[in-house]
Design brief:
With about 375 residues, the chain is α/β, with parallel strands linked by helices. It contains 13 helices and 14 strands. It has 2 domains: about 15-245, Aspartate Aminotransferase, domain 2 (3-Layer(aba) Sandwich), CATH 3.40.640; about 245-375, Alpha-Beta Complex (Aspartate Aminotransferase, domain 1). It is globular and about 65 Å long. Bound molecules: pyridoxal-5'-phosphate (PLP). Pyridoxal-5'-phosphate binds near residues 60, 84, 85, 87 and 88.
């Protein structure tokens, strides 16, 4: 086996191979054509105490489906964290609505009720709270703000499968929650996503929108929509991985705890937080260098590259990216409006958290960090 250290990647066993083989052999005719999609959706919804689940080709399409189902449209504003993956924001643009960036908290790296409230206008229709790197924001506080202004509260739980907030699982917050099963996620189908909702009308609407605007089995199309149908083969892999979720989350936490332990004597650094009301499933280990180290994200990543080891940037502030230049204004995005996001991102990186990583490999990464920090 190669000793290469990977940033991210799954843990696939013979169990998954067996289930996928069954899907390849039997999952094509009659009721079997969507057997694994239905099994996966059903059990995934039940695990999250949600009434309904819809599998999609990826998380971005799950979020798009939800925004479309909620009739978010041109002229509307939707608030997202300044630091997140583009997948949180792009679907707002697909709907021709406006993306509004809220600053993150310096400790838990998620948006806060205060940063959200500061961005609300009479055009705001929804807030998308992101469970960043497996941690979760002040869900009750953000929900209270959404209730106060009568706007939708949406949870992007792409990075938080297996996390919980006050014993309520990530995926149970707001009008709808979305997950990603990208190759780099804790549970993977290569590409894949899931939408969870409780409202039956919203579920039926999203289901209709997912399949070209037609009722199942009908060829009579009443609306031009998207084609976001899942594949039974990918669902079989997702279903098998889901059966092993506890084991996958345990390994992620083991990786995170190893980094924590091996770096416990280094001061002025912060790894993923876990406030006492959170269970953090630690999808990806992130590290923020304290001011005293005077190390920027770029310098830290270059150091790892020079040592032939991988690292990744903490999410860039979205408003700093060329793709979003038209969204930045005096009151939206930018360093002045969202100083914490710009500051944290500039001195933070992601460490290798692939499910294949070994203790020796974590030691090698930590050793590089020690040299970098003169520890
Ligand atoms: C917070 C967040 N939202 C959305 C996405 C988009 O997921 P996908 O690549 O499955 O569309 C990701 C994926 O990395 C993510 O981390």
């Amino acid at each position: 086996m190669s000793n290469e250290i990977y940033m991210a990647g799954p843990w696939i066993t013979e169990f998954e191979e067996k289930i996928v083989l069954d899907a390849v052999r039997t999952g094509w005719y009659g009721k079997n054509a969507y057997k694994y999609v239905e099994l996966f959706e059903h059990e995934f919804a039940a695990y999250h105490n949600r009434a309904y689940a819809l599998m999609t080709p990826n998380c971005t399409s799950a979020l798009h489906l939800l925004l479309k189902g909620l009739d978010i449209r041109e002229g509307d504003e939707v608030i997202v964290p300044e630091c997140t993956w583009i997948g949180t924001a792009a679907p707002i643009h697909y709907q021709r609505a406006n993306i509004v960036f809220a600053d993150i908290d310096p400790i838990h790296w998620c948006i806060t009720p205060e940063t959200v409230e500061a961005r609300i206008t009479n055009k705001t229709k929804a807030v998308i709270a992101v469970d960043l790197y497996g941690n979760m924001p002040d869900m009750e506080g953000i929900k209270a703000v959404c209730d106060k202004y009568k706007i939708y509260f949406i949870e992007d739980a792409a990075e938080a499968l297996g996390s919980s907030y006050k014993n309520v699982r990530a995926g149970k917050f707001g009008i709808g929650s979305v997950f990603s099963f990208h190759r780099t996620k804790t549970l993977t189908t290569g590409e894949g996503g899931m939408l969870l909702v409780d409202d039956e009308n919203l579920y039926q609407r999203c289901k209709f929108l997912r399949d070209h605007g037609r009722q199942p089995g009908s060829y009579y199309v009443t609306e031009i929509t998207n084609k976001y149908m899942p594949s039974n083969l990918l669902a079989s892999l997702g279903y098998a991985q889901f059966k092993r979720l506890d084991e996958l989350v345990e390994k992620k936490r083991w990786i995170w705890h190893n980094y924590q332990q091996m770096l416990s004597d280094v001061d002025d650094i912060a790894l993923n937080p876990e406030p006492d009301y959170i269970f953090n499933s630690a999808w990806c280990v992130a590290l923020v260098f304290g001011e005293k180290h005077k190390i920027s994200q770029e310098q830290a990543m270059k150091f790892f590259t020079d040592h032939n080891q991988p690292s990744r940037p903490f999410f860039y502030p979205l408003s700093s990216l060329p793709a979003f230049k038209n969204f930045v204004s005096e009151s939206n995005g930018g360093r002045l409006n969202n100083p914490i996001s710009y500051d944290i991102s500039n001195r933070a990186i992601n460490l290798p958290t692939a499910l294949s990583i070994t203790q020796e490999q974590i030691e090698q990464i930590v050793q590089t960090l020690r040299v970098m920090l003169h520890y």
